[in-house]
Specification:
The protein is of the alpha+beta class and 648 residues long. It has 12 helices and 27 strands. Strands 10, 11, 13, 14, 15, 16, 17, 18, 19 and 20 form a 10-stranded mixed β-sheet that branches. A 5-stranded mixed β-sheet has the order 3-7-6-5-4, covered by helices on one side. A 4-stranded antiparallel β-sheet has the order 24-23-26-27, with no helix packed on it. A hairpin with an 8-residue loop joins strand 10 and strand 11. The longest helix has 27 residues. It is elongated, with a radius of gyration of 31 Å. The termini are far apart.
Length: 648
């Protein structure tokens, strides 16, 4: 849908106005795009669109002369030497800046401004993940900073010209706005101009949807009734002396978000296999209540102000509690086990809203930025009585469950409904270690990543992705993490599956079990395998746990924890070297100190209850009972590496 550009004035209009209008009509789309991006997202998509057109059309009379400026290719100049292009930019920026300070009474005209749209909601077409990320970055900076960035990237102005436009628009400190725009330009990168030219930000090519028809009918009836009551009340006010003072309390109206159900972007059913970004942005909208605007409106209101709506709010660690700055993407709206559930995604966070009865509503919000084929493959819709039902990604072709404590038992099929909702799946319990059920999913052949992978539900919105890195080969390059579905991976996870309980509510995205060293044990103790399990959170930091298991251990016997570290890069691609030490009692009752390092370790040095230095990646030395030692390693590069801390 395209809004018509303003008409030319009739003959007899002043020539300067004709000149300004000629340039405005020619550059109307670019000016509206600028105004739309300058206005705060909190206004809502429909209001931003209409207001952007209003600001540009009013720029016809708002473009005032001022000092000259260097604007590329000025078409004509107004009295005072100001290029028409700059005068229009100044007028648009000046009109849009005040809206960044929130709603003000003086901004609301007594009469509606043109253009006026009644009975329809207008909004630009939805873009992809890049556009959504850029919109979020823009909404997080002041309007003056946005203006400096947009004038640079969209209109190609140099800093001097941007400074003059901002000064003419009334920005108190244009230099500060330019400096604040520098990081925004660096983070957006060279693709910013292409993203800004996308349909996501085009306020002239629009989609239309009806407003809430039932609500509109009620409003008409209420408006007529209010008019009658106001007339009657005015008569009573004249005849009755005095009256109650107006209340200063909060009015009893329903809390609303800055956008409505019609603003929610919805991805098509076939987008996921026609895009290079396979994550939550590719999820289609599913569920039996996608068109229930009352339910969607309550979900949006709950996210906007959960306390005002009486909604119980649960936030994953490190997750922002504020409402989304743009209308979130609708992923699901339906009934699950008698509970109404709405799943929304704002590009960085998932929000699950559920209604289990009158007055029983809850909202769970968790950060899930940079999801992929595996970590964005399932979301817990509802959890009760130790089990959860998941909504699977459209690229999941096969779903099964398996028990990590029984690596030799085959996975069992899992029933999945047509809308992608699974049958109940047992979650990892908070206590005990009788079983460790996980999802085993296989992706579709229609995407490149055709493979099976494991997801462990630990009570969060997104289950944890489990991977495995095998022992380093002799003379081969370092191994890379892989899916934990093969025999050695399942055996390794069987020995540490009970530790998944500690991940409940921690906002963990993935755990990789890296078998980094193997050594022979004295006193016929068999072989020992050292494992570093790294748990990466959605927000970035990761914790590691180093464990030790032997070939004498039972298949599901849990490995012994020998070291831990919090918020570390160890055991990741940014910390590819690790060394640890531990005391060990042999089958014959003798105590030893064991130490091992990853493939780049060339020598080990012990201090404490045992003092020794040895070349190589592993050592085993006699030691007193329960020895306390500190280990340090020498790498092939000549650098020293400190051992991970032993648990207290």
């Amino acid at each position: 849908m395209h809004l018509r550009s303003p008409r030319r004035p009739a003959r007899g209009a002043r020539p300067p106005v004709l000149e300004v209008e000629s340039v405005l009509v020619e550059q109307y789309g670019d000016l509206v795009r600028l105004a739309h991006l300058l206005l705060p997202a909190a206004l809502g998509r429909h209001r931003r669109v209409v207001l952007a057109h209003s600001l540009v059309q009013r720029a016809l009379t708002g473009a005032r002369p001022g000092p000259g400026a260097r604007v590329p290719h000025p078409r004509t100049k107004r009295p005072g030497g100001v290029p028409v292009e700059q005068a229009l930019l100044v007028a648009v920026v000046r009109g849009a800046l005040p809206y960044d300070h929130g709603p003000r009474r003086h901004l609301i005209p007594l009469l509606p401004r043109l253009p006026l749209v009644v009975g329809l909601r207008l909004f630009p077409r939805s873009g992809g993940g890049g556009e959504l990320a850029l919109a979020q970055r823009l909404s997080g900076v002041p309007a003056a900073c946005r203006a400096a960035f947009l004038l640079r990237s969209m209109h190609g102005l140099d800093d001097e010209a941007v400074h003059e436009v901002l000064a003419g628009a009334g920005v108190p400190d244009p230099d500060a706005a330019l400096r604040a725009a520098d990081p925004l330009g660096e983070s957006a990168g060279p693709v910013a101009a292409a993203l800004l030219a996308s349909p996501e930000f085009n306020a002239c090519a629009l989609q239309a949807s009806p407003t809430d028809l039932l609500r509109r009918r009620r409003r008409v009836r209420l408006g007529l009734a209010a008019a009658v009551c106001s007339i009657a009340g005015a008569g009573l006010a004249v005849t009755l002396p005095g009256g109650p003072a107006p209340s200063d309390g909060t009015p009893a109206y329903a809390v609303r978000a800055a956008y409505g159900p019609a603003d929610l972007p919805r991805t098509g059913d076939t987008v996921w296999d026609n895009t290079s970004r396979v994550d939550f942005t590719a999820w289609p909208a599913r569920g039996s209540r996608l068109h229930d605007e009352a339910l969607l409106g309550r979900a949006l209101s709950a996210w906007a102000r959960p306390a005002r709506t009486g909604t119980r709010l649960t936030l994953a660690p490190g997750t922002r509690p504020d409402a989304p700055v743009t209308a979130p993407r609708l992923l699901y709206a339906g009934e699950v086990g008698g509970t109404a559930v709405v799943l929304l995604y704002d590009g960085e966070r998932l929000a699950r809203y559920d209604e289990s009865g009158p007055g029983r509503t809850s909202l769970s919000v968790a950060g899930v930025d940079e999801g992929d084929v595996t970590s964005a493959a399932a979301v817990a819709l509802i959890a009760s009585q130790g089990s959860a039902r998941y909504l699977l990604a459209p690229w999941v072709a096969e779903a099964q469950t398996r028990d990590l404590l029984r690596p030799d038992v085959l996975a069992r099929p899992l029933a999945v409904a047509k809308d992608g909702v699974t049958a109940p799946v047992p979650e990892i319990p908070a206590g005990g270690c009788a079983s460790r059920p996980v999802l085993q999913l296989r992706s579709s052949e229609r995407i490149a990543e055709h493979h099976a992978f494991l997801l462990a539900g630990v009570g969060d919105l997104s289950p944890v992705h489990l991977t495995y890195t095998p022992l380093p080969g002799h003379g081969n390059p370092p191994r890379q993490p892989r899916e934990a579905t093969g025999g050695p991976a399942l055996v390794a996870w069987a020995h540490q599956a009970c530790g998944l309980t500690s991940l409940r509510g921690a906002g963990v995205r993935a755990v990789n079990a890296w078998d980094f060293a193997e050594q022979g044990l004295p006193d016929d103790g068999g072989q020992a395998v050292w494992t570093c399990a790294r748990a990466d959170s959605w927000r970035g930091p990761g914790d590691v746990t180093v464990g030790l298991r032997t070939t004498r251990d039972a298949p599901a016997e849990q490995m012994r924890t020998v070291a831990r570290a919090r918020s570390t890069a160890a055991c990741s691609r940014f910390g590819q070297h690790v060394v640890a030490a531990a005391g060990w009692r042999s089958p014959r009752g003798h105590w030893f100190v064991l130490a091992a390092g990853s493939r780049a370790v060339t020598a080990l040095r012990l201090t404490g209850d045992v003092t020794a230095a040895r070349d190589g990646r592993t050592l085993a030395l006699p030691a007193p009972e329960r020895p306390h030692v500190t280990v340090r390693a020498r790498l092939a590069t000549g650098q020293d590496l400190d051992g991970l801390n032993q648990p207290g």
